[in-house]
Design brief:
Blueprint: H1 7-15, H2 21-28, H3 35-39, E1 71-77, H4 86-91, E2 96-103, E3 107-108, H5 112-121, E4 125-131, H6 139-151, E5 163-165, H7 180-198, E6 203-206, H8 208-215, E7 227-230, E8 248-252, E9 257-262, H9 265-273
Parallel strand pairs: 1-2, 2-4, 4-5, 5-6, 6-7, 7-8
Antiparallel strand pairs: 1-9, 2-3, 8-9
Helix pairs in contact: 1-2, 6-7
């Protein structure tokens, strides 16, 4: 399957974002979204988002109790939300936001600037995330691409470290055609490069099911990289190997992806400051 839009149109759109047309031409030859991804609104490459598959569990009817002494409410967004009314979310008690910046080595979200800067402007602590496609290029290459297109970090008390969104493949084989050991190596290449360039350890977003299936439930990152667990249920459930607690929990996608931070606002600010 290929892009539903003509290649020339795709080139025009991405060229406007400052990307090389050769990269667009290469991306257009890659497999398009699977039927399952299309059913979840991923109509073409680049449109995948955190928890796109809705396979982390049944979304709770209301916000579940995190069972923690203190939490901070947040959301995560992508191009699917378009320009966001951040003042409304601030009024609802949302105090942090993560925005999709990039995917693979071929896509930059057209809504990134409004979402990333808009959340900051209303007072939220914000961050950026990268949707990984490990079969397209190396972990180091994708970390560089992410950092170069909004995924960097600064110690201003309002900018969180970047997130590696590593989950179900919307374009083909669940584990992107990589063995478990190769997947661990790919993730390490990404996180090592991110650390070397920003001085921060990237947060890893995933589900326990995907992590177990595609990394062999590796414990290699629990001591360095904060965990963002996706589980649409009344509790975060069993965590991947190596992590004794989660830093973020995405607990529903209704009506927008909603998240808890494990701690109070002072701890979230501390995470932002490094």
């Amino acid at each position: 399957m290929r892009f539903t839009r003509p290649l020339t149109a795709a080139i025009s759109i991405v060229a406007a974002l400052g990307l090389a047309t050769s990269t667009v031409a290469e991306a257009a030859t890659r497999s398009g979204p699977t039927p399952n991804a299309r059913a979840h609104g991923v109509d073409q490459r680049g449109e995948a988002y955190m928890g796109w598959s809705d396979t982390a569990g049944a979304a709770p009817a209301s916000a579940p109790s995190p069972g923690l002494a203190a939490v901070v409410n947040g959301i995560d967004v992508s191009s699917h939300q378009g320009d966001v009314d951040w003042a409304t979310y601030w009024g609802q008690g949302v105090r942090f936001a993560y925005t999709k910046a990039t995917e693979g080595d071929y896509y930059v979200s057209p809504n990134f600037t409004q979402q990333y800067n808009g959340s900051y402007d209303v007072g939220m602590i914000r961050g950026a995330y990268h949707f990984a496609t490990p079969n397209d290029s190396s972990g180091a290459t994708q970390a560089d691409y992410f950092i170069s297109h909004g995924g960097g970090w600064s110690r201003d008390g309002k900018t969180l470290p970047g997130v590696l969104d590593i989950e179900y493949n919307p374009y083909g084989a669940t584990c992107y055609g990589l063995s478990q050991s190769a997947m661990v190596s790919w993730i390490k290449a990404f996180t090592d490069r991110y650390r070397s360039r920003t001085g921060r350890d990237a947060i890893i977003y995933s589900t326990t099911d995907w992590w177990t299936t595609c990394t062999g439930n590796s414990a290699a990152f629990g001591g360095t990289n904060p965990l963002w667990i996706a589980k649409y249920a009344g509790s975060a459930g069993t965590l991947p190997n190596g992590w004794g607690y989660y830093t973020f929990w995405q607990y529903t996608s209704t009506p927008v992806d909603k998240d808890y931070f494990n701690g109070d606002l002072s701890r979230l600010t501390a995470l932002a400051n490094g």
